[in-house]
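Repro:
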Amino acid sequence: MKLLPYFALILLFISCKNQQETSEQIPQNKTLKTVFKDDFYVGVALNEAQIKETDSVTTNLIAEQFSSVTPENLMKSMHIYPEKEVFNFTTSDVFVNFAKKHQLHIQGHTLIWHSQLSPFFSEITDSTELASVITNHINTIIGRYKGKIDAWDVLNEALNDDGALRESVFYKVLGEDYIPMVFQIASEADPNAQLFYNDYSLTNPDKRRGAINLIKNLQNKGVKVDGIGMQGHWGLTSPTISEIETSILEYAALGIKVDITELDISVIPMPWDFSGADVNVKFESDDPTMNPYPTELPEVIQKQLAIRYQEIFKLLSIKTR
């Protein structure tokens, strides 16, 4: 598990205490990563200030509580590959050194994504040229961190909500074959790195079927894919725990790992399904009717939020089975 927000720490301590009955079952140094060390990585996304250790309190919190880190934005193409033949590794090098210093698992995010994309990608209409640019992009980045970054989100959000392939610039120019192509390039660039497909709304039946078909297509072609990242942009009641469990089991049945990524629980109404997170969706964020809790979160909602996290972590924890 990765990308757990800081605000969830106290809530999860409540969850941990409820999961284990006796004090002997709770480690004396009960941090998130020690409580769940036998179950999964507990991860967090880091921004530039956190990577550069500008605040010692935050740095200590990251080192004490988390076992895995992911770069929030700095490895997205618009930042790391801003122009053709121009790569910017300044901050990503600091990020990798930070993780190694604190002995943290690293999940690279993300190699191929239609959003936050370097502008020049969209200007390429020739399939040979785009394939060459993609190859250089993946080989250069993975090559620099070969043996240092443990896993990669190779492809991000390539599906529509109905499970069909998104008509991204990659799809329009290269067709559906771009998907096995990028995974194959990544696997050759670092055979030991774990390779993931990452997307939102993966508990929704239609999109789940699309994701399963995507993974099966890679497997049928003999292309390496190690896991799937289920983005956890969820609400207080949706998706249900049963829907989350069903999805995990169906993905796991493919013989791959399942990550719960980008976990956040919304307590306010949103103009889209809670399980989604399309960054292209726009809405009036200053509309006062959008946030019923402008000053503070009521205690009853805080308790609902704590219970929601408890239920999710109970589902994911081996100790409860």
